[in-house]
Write a structure and sequence with these properties.
The structure is a homodimer of 118-residue chains. Chain A has 118 residues and is mainly α. Chain A has a single domain, classed as Arc Repressor Mutant, subunit A, CATH 1.10.10. Chain A contains six helices and three strands. In chain A, a hairpin with a 2-residue loop joins strand 2 (71-76) and strand 3 (79-84). The structure holds a DNA duplex (30 and 30 nucleotides).
Chain lengths: 118, 118
DNA sequence: CTTATTCATCGATAATCGACGATATTCGAT
DNA sequence: ATCGAATATCGTCGATTATCGATGAATAAG
């Protein structure tokens, strides 16, 4: 499946790390969890109200989550609707992937975009 | 399985984050990957040589990985033998766990220690 | 006892990051 | 065009973090 003793190059290590960094903060975990439990998209205002985190902080974290495609945005009037990217949830790398040298997954662009081998 | 719309308390979010933080650094990813590919335990010196990272830096990251039980240490003479904690690899939380509100896994103490329900 | 080896720890430094308040931007309504 | 609401961005502060070099502790060897 992979080069057996190949020590994993720095670039792949950084890609892996960038995945885990996205969830390496308690506030982002809360936002992701919140968006996942409400099945429907949420506006920033709703997220701010529901999470008790400051507006600029929420916006900042949502941006980070959107950059790694973990959440998807859709502007609607003056509001921004955020929702979970299910594809990103399912292809998020596991520790076993790191250990086994699985190729780093690509970032799915849409909710129905395939992860790697689907 | 879980309280449906319960927004995930801060404490659980921080526990989750602490798991992901362990792998949120490229150097730690490399060390974990390196230890995993060599099936046998490695000394710090071997890890330093094989990874090309400074000795104190390696020692620092190994300490972090050991604190979260991701690697196990065993002193042998003047050397320290590090090896992967397979139990920690297999119970490492996934993004789906966060989304579904799975209870945060406990840190397995030994390689053969059970994760949660095994 | 002395010395060399192996590793952990300390101190310093620079970079990153999270949170906040204030400001800017975007867009709908009037 | 103007106003107001919703959100993004900016500047800053404080805290954490990654890396390095040097020092120190433990142990094995001579």
């Amino acid at each position: 499946m992979n080069k057996d003793t190949e020590p994993l190059d720095r670039a792949s290590a950084e890609e892996y790390a960038s995945w885990f960094k996205a969830l390496a903060d308690a506030t982002r975990i809360q936002l992701v969890s919140l968006l996942a439990r409400r099945r429907a998209p949420m506006t920033v205002g709703e997220i701010v109200a529901a999470s008790g985190v400051g507006q600029s902080t929420v916006s900042h974290h949502l941006k980070i989550l959107a950059e790694v495609r973990f959440v998807l945005v859709e502007r609607q009037g003056t509001a921004s609707l955020y929702r979970i990217n299910e594809a990103c949830v399912s292809c998020f790398p596991t520790a076993a992937d790191v250990v086994m040298g699985t190729p780093v997954p690509a970032r799915p662009s849409a909710s129905e975009g395939a992860c790697d081998g689907t």
